[in-house]
Amino acid sequence: MTTEKNEEMTSEEVLTCAINIGEQLLVSGAEISRVEDTIRRICNAYGIRQSHIFSIASCIIVTLETKERKWITQTRRILSYGTDMWKLDRLNDLSRRICATQPSFEVIDREYEKILKGPTYSPAVQCGIYAMTAGAFAIFFGGNLWDGFASLFVGALIRVTLYALSAIKLKAIFSNILCSLISGMACILVCYLGIGQHVEMIMIGNIMLLIPGVLMTNSFRDFISGDMISGLLHFSEAMITAICVAAGFILSKILLGGML
Questions:
Q1: Residue 76: beta bridge partners?
Q2: pLDDT tens digits for 107-146?
Q3: Distance CA 199, CA 192 (A)
Q4: How many domains does one find in the chain?
Q5: Cβ atoms within 10 Å, residue 226
Q6: pLDDT at residue number 257
Q7: Per-residue confidence band for 38, with pLDDT thresholds at 50, 70 and 90
Q8: pTM here?
């Protein structure tokens, strides 16, 4: 990134750059304290008199006092978020370079767009990762090689199911229940067909793909940072997701449990 500075960069442009980066940090899985600190540092680097940032899991509100003693505000609504370590690393690096060199708006926007268009795993690769993860967990929790082999198919099915449910924009709570129900039934069926031997081990291996472990970790990270509202929101979402996953697998046992 070029280090050319632009003294004419307006306060509105500073606010836009800062909140864009903060929004993508939040969407990519950054903790609330990192999001707020990044926005504040970028604003300070361009001589903003005051910056007041409020961020939770679903919203960012930034209000600035410009050099001309005027107040401006932007709000961003966060509809969905996940974990993308590649973007987190690039956005952190970009924010540090901005604070060190104060580049122009055009330079920042160009670098920001490059990050947004960064590499992603193809659907086939993601299905393969889900399959291998499910198989490894099934063996780790006490299953044999046949159970691990059977978990490969169910793990890939979970990724395909998630793609399909995402395509029809099904609400998360119903998506979690339906995906768990389908995967639970698949676990029972692979044992019924003789591919796997211990349905409990196969189920455990595939449940690990659906439990909100990262979300729960983020909630405690927010608690430790003092962001109680975001911590409670993340914790509540994690608990609701876990209940939905459990409900789906319980329903599958009720519907097909008699086959074993």
A1: 60
A2: 999 999 999 988 888 889 999 999 999 999 999 998 889 9
A3: 9
A4: 2
A5: 10
A6: 65
A7: very high
A8: 0.80
Give the count of alpha carbons within 13 A of 52, CB side only: 7
Q: Are residues 245 and 171 in the same domain?
A: yes
160 shares its domain with 70? no
Residue 169, pLDDT score: 83
Sign of CA dihedral 95, 99, 100, 103: positive
Q: At what angle do helices 172-192 and 199-207 cross, to 10 degrees?
A: 150
Q: Is residue 193 domain-shared with residue 144, that is, in the same domain?
A: yes
Domain termination residue (choose one: 98, 116, 134): 116
Last residue of a domain, one of 69, 84, 116: 116
For position 213, what pLDDT does the model report?
83
DSSP for 158-226 reads HHHHHHHHHHTT--HHHHHHHHHHHHHHHHHHHHHTTS-S-HHHHHHHHHTTTS-HHHHHHHHHHHHHT
Residue 1 located in a structural domain:
no
Do 131 and 254 reside in the same domain of the chain? Answer: yes
Residue 139 shares a structural domain with residue 17: no
7 pLDDT band, cuts 50/70/90, is low
pLDDT one-digit tens code per residue, 166-198:
888 888 888 889 999 999 999 999 988 888 888
Per the listing, tokens 């793609």 go with: 163
CB 82 within 8 A of CB 99: no
- 60/154 same-domain check: no
Residues 163, 249 share a domain: yes
Continuous H helices in the chain: 11-27, 32-45, 85-101, 105-116, 123-140, 145-167, 172-192, 199-207, 213-225, 228-256
Domain of residue 194: give its range. 123-259
